[in-house]
Amino acid sequence: MTDAVTNPANATKGLPSLAGFSAPIVAGLGLILGYLGGNAAGLGLVGALVGAALGALLAYAAAGAFDAASPVKFASNRTAGRWTMIALYGLIGLALGLVPGLVAGVLIGAVMSWFAYWIVRGDYRKGVPPYATPGQVLWHNAFLFICGAIFFFLIAPIVTIIPLSFNAEAFFTFTPEMLALDPAGYSLRHYEDFFTNSDWQLAMRNSLIIAPFATIIAVTLGTVAAIGLSQSHVPGRQAIMAILISPMIVPLIISATGMFFFYSAMGNWLEANLGMSRELTGYIKVILAHAALGIPFVIITVTATLVGFDRSLTRASANLGAGPVRTFFKVQMPLILPGVISGGLFAFITSFDEVVVVLFVGAAAQKTLPWQMFIGLREQVSPTILAVATILVTFSIILLTTVELLRRRSERLRGMSPG
Q1: Cα atoms in the Cβ-side hemisphere of radius 13 Å centred on 386
Q2: Where is the ABC transmembrane type-1 domain positioned along the sequence (predicted)?
Q3: pLDDT at 132 over 60
């Protein structure tokens, strides 16, 4: 063991004291996780003691205390060291709790091995200046922990429904077979019901009809409005902007009530004067209502993209003889396209996930997927809702990932560093 690791002063490498700081901290986390794991098996005290002991051993291993007698060089090869620690925890969990214990052990081992290296190697100081005081370092890492806890608080309920959607039983709970990771406790029956049930398929078809049309309208009107409002000579543009983005500020139930009265009158006029069927006017009303909800997202994203747009390019295009329309499609549109697509994706998600407005404006023929999920919760508790929710979560993750990639591309086009 090197003096840089054991010496509290750490004058050589600047690493924290092993015996006086790193080992007790890692042992403390091991004690907490060991107590939680042991408490599940009714051995809370034993689990806490074993967890603390393993935590201290991990700290010494990460510092290289056992490198001379071990084929794995923990200090120099962090990847191999972490995998060895994860395997150790996994074997302990397998011996104590079979397959569920193995999974829990692997997860705890991943956390503990990362934490051991993070503390022992001084990585917790990597986001702060070298001259930062211990209090500043503590606040920096506490702030990151608070952000992580908030993220977990927001994500945990969503993640929980994913394994539940594979439940072999018609229950909204984890069965003993699922907790034991028995294959018999898992099934795709709820996904099969979604793809074969006529009610769910009608709702999916309506959502796939309404959302794209609403997105097209929202993108067209929102982009035009954003370009117009970005001109400094437009009078009252701040007030106009506030009015246009009001649908995302006003409580949705109020917007839905106003849309009900407005679009009901419009639907009656279309039926009486243009001879449209009630079903067609129902689709038109819902599409227009969802477009109104999506326009603010398009305006905001396109306006943000236009902030870095070089106006001299449009003037140069005009000087070369191009008209406004040609200038827009050949010069301006390619540069603001990432913002337009991002706004369109947000508008699509808004329409695809919306349920309150469609309840007010639409009829049974326009029943969308969220509406059918609402019916499933209110009238019949069907686990198929969990399968649909998992599909929607996956779909939303794909769209949001696309939005992030487009944001980074937009920043690169504007010469900014993607953050």
Answers
A1: 24
A2: 204-403
A3: yes
